[in-house]
Design a protein that fits this description.
Layout (H helix, E strand, L loop, with lengths): L5 E2 L42 E8 H10 L2 E2 L13 H12 L7 E5 L5 E5 L1 H11 L24 H9 L1 E7 L5 H11 L8 H8 L3 H10 L2 H7 L8 H15 L7 H12 L6 H18 L7 E2 L2 E2 L5 H12 L3 H6 L1 H12 L15 H16 L14
Parallel strand pairs: 3-5, 4-6
Antiparallel strand pairs: 1-2, 2-6, 4-5, 7-8
Helix pairs in contact: 1-3, 2-3, 7-9, 8-11, 9-12, 11-12, 12-15
Amino acid sequence: MAKKKQMIAKSSTTRSLVGTRSVRASQSSFSEEDDAPEPLDLSADERKLVTQPYDYSVDQLTAHVDKGKIVLIDVPYQREYVWDDTKASRLIESLLLNVPIPVCYFAENEDNTWEVIDGLQRVRSIVRFLRGDFVLRGLSVLTELNGLKFADIPARDQRRIESRTLRFVVITQESHPDIKFDVFERLNTGAVKLLPQELRNCIYRGPLNDALQNMSDYASYRAALGRSRDPRMRDEELVLRFLALYSDIRGYKPPLAQHLNEYMRKNRAKTPDSATLNVFDDTMKAISEVLGERAFSMLRYGKASSNINRALFDAVSVSFAFADRGAIRRKAKAVWKAHAALLTDSTFQPLVGRATADRTRMHGRVRMYTAAIRAVGVKTTLPDLPEE
């Protein structure tokens, strides 16, 4: 074994800027205002990636899985990418033919278990075959093995599979968490590239991750978004943005992805308290009741876009969360007009249109939106935000 460390509830009354529309599904209804890669905010000492290479036999691999050393999990976004038995059979044939198998990458968890971050389908296919979960099919070279399970193939072939050596690279706990997440993204080279929240869904499993999914199903939230659930977990990321900003809007600093990762990492083992859940639910109800299902949409050619602007979501949701929502409801017409005015305001538009993860723009849009609703008589408790 080679070991070598190396640094390397929808409201009954809704209002819309372009009229009331029914909630509908969306293939991709998010604007791309902040999708450009952001440089990580790390000091030279924090830019550390420590990896450990291992050469394991297939027999050792399955033993580690059985003992729980290697964790194989089912996560929602991976289900459509799971190999069928024919593709898995081709991998087994490659093992028998001594065809080189690509390196698999693992991340070391706090409990010292390993989690597959690249090569999950390969590892699972091998384990499934040795457990007798499928018969070989579609083999083009060793055709005589088609239709056989592991226990049915010749003993010589069983030994060849079990003794075949695979190379694993483990990203150890010594690595900086944000560097590790960056590596996960770099290794994410599948046919359909995973989005950041899909990666977080796997990396930061726990009560908080479960809560994000549950909160995404709140009727109030679905009504505020004005459409059915996004299949790529963008809705969960918006909930995460809300929680991270509501908990410490004053302390926000870019890059946004790193900020969200840190919030999930620090809070992964706990569920948001009941007070926070109630604020989220009532905030979304108030948004839906007062602004309607295009609450997070900018204008295009004078009409509300069908896309959700995530930066506008920050401004609206955080401002409403810190505001007297009873007053917002009582002054619904004035609040709606203030909202509509901001969408055409030449000072506000850049704050939600470009470089939106910037600290100045993040604070600027929340501060400006809060000022707009204060101007119509709504009290808020938003902390004073620094003006850089």
